[in-house]
Write a structure and sequence with these properties.
mainly alpha; two-stranded antiparallel ribbon; 55% helix; 2% strand
């Protein structure tokens, strides 16, 4: 196999495709296509660097070195025309950053080219304007079992949604939404990106780029390496693989936050501080509930939370939920 310039042959064409079609791809109805291109870019750049970078797995064998820049800066070659377009492009990539730990060629090609059956949680996450009840339902799903251990009751979930900062959620004054890196984008805008069909000319270019045998080689090589490294590290840490560890030990005993104080409220960042008379009433209803719980805790609660709870109840206690709640 000859020296393969993955950055020139694969990465740049994808980013130039976004650059050329940025007006089309950042229209609300076309954001799922942008998100899928973000998935392709993130996956191939991440593992391209591992395999073909200056110290890559196949660099010495094929005498090459590429993909060394931070992908955050590489994406700037899209040259967005407005700040809004820049945020949409940036978050279409950022949406996938934490999903790049280990992706096989089979998984990647299936995501790009085949139909994906979404889980119940994934379907519910597609809803654009989620009420507080929607979030509570999402956290109660069986596939959210980790959340069940971390947040053993409703008020612990509400604490996470309302008070905790830096958790990936923001409030636009009406609803709480899962936000992107830029904080301005509701990730639900990207919709069911896994099952979106590209516009024909975009699809043709994507197929052309992914048809290089080196793309498959990149993912097969990185997948094999990462799986081996992960297993080795797990055995070093636990004495067994992580899957076996999970079966042996009961994680319920490790998490018990039911009696801890609420997260300290931040007037600048906590979502509950953005609630107002125009906020969906489900949030106000549960906001009153947690604030009353804070007051009931008395001296065991944080002073700043007690003060905030008093003010919140005073502001919203007279809302008639019988006429406004739906």
């Amino acid at each position: 196999m000859k020296k393969f310039k993955i950055e020139q042959k694969v990465i740049d064409p994808i980013l130039n495709l976004i650059k050329k079609n940025q007006g089309y791809l950042t229209q609300r109805e076309n954001l799922p296509q942008l998100a899928k291109l973000g998935y392709i870019y993130n996956t191939l750049w991440t593992f391209g660097r591992l395999v073909w970078g200056n110290n890559g797995l196949l660099t010495k064998k094929f005498n090459t070195g590429q993909c060394e820049d931070n992908p955050k800066y590489k994406i700037e070659m899209c040259k967005p025309k407005t700040e809004e377009i820049e945020n949409l492009i940036y978050d279409a990539w950022g949406l996938h950053v934490e999903n790049d730990l280990c992706i096989s060629w089979k998984e990647f090609s299936k995501t790009v080219f085949e139909k994906t059956i979404l889980s119940e949680k994934e379907v519910k996450m597609l809803k654009l304007e989620k009420t507080c009840d929607d979030w509570l339902e999402i956290y109660s799903l069986e596939e959210s079992c980790f959340y069940k251990e971390l947040f053993p009751n409703r008020n612990r979930i509400l604490d996470h949604l309302f008070f905790v900062i830096g958790n990936g959620y923001d409030c636009d004054g009406k609803f709480i939404y899962e936000s992107g890196v830029t904080k301005t984008i509701n990730l639900a805008w990207y919709g069911d990106w896994r099952n979106v069909k590209f516009r024909k000319d975009i699809e043709e270019l994507v197929e052309e780029v992914l048809d290089y045998p080196e793309v498959k080689l990149t993912l097969e090589t990185s997948y094999s390496f990462i799986k081996h490294e992960q297993l080795t590290e797990e055995i070093k840490r636990w004495g067994v693989s992580k899957d076996d560890f999970d079966r042996i030990y009961n994680f319920k005993s490790m998490f018990n936050y039911s009696d801890t104080p609420y997260y300290p409220v931040s007037e600048r960042f906590s979502n509950i501080t953005f609630f107002n008379e125009g906020t969906h009433p489900s949030y106000l209803k549960y906001g009153l509930e947690v604030c009353q719980d804070i007051l009931n805790r008395g001296a065991t609660e944080r002073k700043e939370n007690l003060k905030f709870a008093e003010e919140f109840i005073l502001r919203f206690k007279n809302i008639n939920f019988d006429s406004t709640f739906n």
